[in-house]
Structure formats: structure tokens, C-alpha cells
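Slack export, channel: ligand-projects

TW: morning all. Re-posting the request from yesterday since it got buried. We need the structure predicted with the small molecule present, not the apo form. The ligand is zinc ion; the SMILES is in the block with the sequence. No rush, but it would help planning for next week.
GE: picking it up
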Amino acid sequence: MRSLLLSVLVVVGIAGPALAPLPVRAQSAANALASGSTDMHWSEGASNCKTSPHSSLEVHYYNAQTFILRESLCVTFEAPFMYLLVGSTRAMLIDTGDVADADHMPLATTVMGLLPSNGSAKLPLLVVHTHRHLDHREGDGQFAQLPGVQVVGFDLDSVKRFYNFTDWPNGQAQIDLGDRIVDVIPTPGHNETHVSFYDRKTGLFFSGDFLMPARLLIDDAAADLQSARRVAAFVKDRPVTAVLGGHVELDARGETYAWESTYHPNEHALPMTKDDLLALPAAVASFNGFYAQSGPFLMMNSMRVLIAIGIAVVVVLIALVIALIRYVRRRLRTRRAIVSN
Ligand SMILES: [Zn+2]
Ligand SMILES: [Zn+2]
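GE: finished. pasting the full C-alpha cell output, ligand included:
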């Protein structure tokens, strides 16, 4: 998110991804998936966070090797989700949230505490991003100096280079966490650096700000449409347990909370579905490039909406000035008429 308002590689013995896509047998793969709990309960935040006690970071145990983390609404209205996947040889953290200061957001401490030990050290950790917006990478600095941690750069060149994308945004990459392969799919549109992740072990699809129960801010509609089609083709014959995005901004009825609201009563569930991914191409194809609602998808180009609001404000101001000038002139004419009489 965050686009409305507006690297380092520390190698831990892992080269970039180089695995070929595995043949897909949907049924057998579905049977082999590691199960987990999507019964999540997150803090609803508060309208006045100063008077409401809150924890800064919440953790949901999907299963013993998969964790869903969320920053509190009372620490940041973005309340982004982050995902920790643990393999047999290393772990991967998707996104680092919206808060840099470890005193306010103990992200690295929490994540390192969740990692199993590897001898006397912790399992190596790879930190990746869905995209470069600040609310998905502000916590990078907490990991930068930690031993055994590799933070992938967030700019487009770093993303292409790390995943070895030679024909961006086409192609896929794979990350091997040890007995756990994660596919990486370019999904630009919300942002030019956006990628999504598919975990073959659980069937979870991590969609960042590309798809989530929130306003879908689309900077580049043509790129977004191609991404939606690319993802739909990817998941078509694969089992998808749940689609997990970067934010929740809708209530259970599908209504949006106010911009920057820190209070989310009766919040929409985080998981979306494979059917949502399959329906996304048609929805994006119908997007007028400005603002549109199509089924569960609320799409907008935040920059154009802002420009339109700006133009409307200017028009109203001009109208007020013209009305004021006319009023003053009328008053002057009336006064002169009184004086001359
Ligand atoms: Zn975001
Ligand atoms: Zn974003």
C-alpha cells in the first residue's frame, strides 16, 4: 500500500534460485500438502490507541513451520502482514513491515525467536519482499547486521538479479528452503517490483498488495492485467489452500474502513481463494483506470484519484473566489449608488 501518499546481499551460502518448475499433478499435490490453521484472530485496533493497551506484533501459528505475523493497527494503520516459512536448511521471511524502530516493533527478535536452531546457531534466514513500498520493507534494517541473514534488495534490478529473471515480468523462479520449494511469480501492476510467492509445501499463495481484501491500488493497469492472467494460468492446475495478502481494509460485509483508520471492528478475514485469483483477470480487464468495483475487487489508481480530488478542490476554490469578487463588486456598486443619491 502506501502508494497513495506517495541492498544489500549478505550471502549465507545460498545462490540464487535455479530450480526448474516441477511437473504439476494437482490431485496428488493437494493430498500431500502440509495442513495448517487459517482460523486467525487479530486485534481490531482502537479509535484512540493512546488509551488502549495493545501488543505491537501478533503471530499466528499456521503450522509448526509456517507463521503469519501482523503489525498492530495501533502502531501503524497499514497493519501489514508478514510471512515466515521454515524449511529444513533455511527459512524465508516475506516482507518486514512498516516500522523500522526495534523498540516499537520487535520484528527481528520475534522472527529469530521463531526460527529453529541449526547446531549452535539459528537456521539461516532469507528476507524477501513482495514489493518496494515502505510498509513492506521498513523493518529491513533490523535484519541487516544479523549473522546468517540475507536481505534481498527491493529495487527492480536487485529483484531481477536475485531471482535471475531474464525476461521480466515473464518467467518464474524457485527458492529451495530445504524440502520446501517456493515459486516466485512477477506480479507488477500495483508496483513495478511486485512479486508473489507460491509455497508448494502448504499450497499457500502470498499475494502482497496484488490481491487482498483491501483497496487494490493499481498504478499500471496493463501490467496488472498481464500479472492477473499470469497468476491465473499458474494456479489453474495447482492446489491453492489460501491466498494471503499484505493488508485487510474491508470489514466482513466488504465495506472499506476510512483511510488510515486504526480501528477495524468486524474485520474481513485475511484469506482469499483460488477462485478470487481466477476471477481477477476479468475484473482487472474491466477496470477503467480510475476507480471501479467488480465483485469483491475494489480497484483504483490512487494517483489519478488524488489528481481528480485536487482538480475538484481547485475548481471549488476558483468558484468561491469568483463568487466573492462578484459579491464585493455588488456591495461596492450598491454603496456608490447610495452615496450618489
Ligand atoms: Zn502495502
Ligand atoms: Zn504497496
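GE: first-pass observations. The chain has a mean pLDDT of 90. The chain is about 25% helix and 20% strand.
TW: perfect, thank you
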